[in-house]
Write a structure and sequence with these properties.
Blueprint: E1 10-15, E2 27-33, H1 39-47, E3 65-70, E4 73-80, H2 91-107, E5 111-119, H3 126-137, E6 142-147, H4 154-171, E7 177-181, H5 190-201
Length: 227
């Protein structure tokens, strides 16, 4: 397969539910994250297109499952999932978003990997833990972006990354879940992210299963203090 050129990303379709998603052909990698965690900004930075995925200072901007094709092929896709968490919409609408998100993650067979955006200043929130635990149980590779790395000093950012990796290792998740620091304004971490996604979109062996693992939790608040 030819090298993935992320600059070729183009909007394909928006789907309100799994039924309206593109056919189950080829491969796709999805971006998930809490509202305003920098998910859409990371996607735009990766593709070098500020207008690809809509961004806003108002949480809850992404309300549909948005698909973007790569290499001029509808069979190679990036997916921007609805942001989870606070949004200025009704509770009924929030529940509907969550239902469609769950359906997509559990039933979409062409999904090869998940990118989880977490604000580096507030990592490992309830939604983040839910996504990590779900991905491991579902044997879906997950790569975490500790976004907004430019908001911390280099030392503080590295310390948070090390603590995150320590938590993964202690839970037995480190063979299935990876992580990095990312900054959209500075374009830090773009190459690493591109390599990870390219690996998933190229044909190859499935990652090794984890035999023994303990669910991640944030019961110890001292592990990830508010920075």
């Amino acid at each position: 397969m030819a090298k993935i050129n992320f600059n070729t990303a183009k909007f394909l379709i928006s789907a309100p539910s799994l039924k309206q998603c593109p056919p189950e052909r080829g491969a796709e990698v999805a971006f998930a994250g809490r509202s305003n965690a920098g998910k859409s900004s990371a996607l735009n930075t990766l593709t070098n297109n500020k207008k690809l995925s809509r961004t806003s200072k108002t949480p809850g901007c992404t309300q549909l499952i948005n698909f973007f094709q790569l290499n001029n092929s509808p069979d190679l896709r990036l997916v921007d999932l609805p942001g989870y968490g606070y949004a200025q919409v009704s509770k009924t609408m929030k529940n509907k978003w969550q239902e469609h998100l769950s359906e997509y993650l559990n039933e979409r067979k062409s999904l090869k990997g998940l990118i989880l955006a977490m604000d580096i200043r507030h990592p490992m929130q309830e939604f983040d833990l839910m996504m990590i635990n779900w991905a491991v149980e579902s044997e879906l590779p997950l790569h975490t972006l500790l976004t907004k790395g430019d908001k911390l000093s280099r030392g503080a950012a590295q310390s948070t990354l090390l603590q995150f990796r320590k938590s993964l290792k202690e839970s037995g998740f480190d063979r299935y879940v990876t992580g990095q620091i990312f900054s959209s304004p500075n374009r830090d971490g773009v190459d690493e992210l591109a390599r990870q996604i390219s690996t998933w979109l190229q044909p190859g062996d499935k990652p090794v299963k984890i035999a023994d693992k303990q669910p991640l939790s944030n019961s110890n608040d001292d592990e990830f203090p508010e920075l």
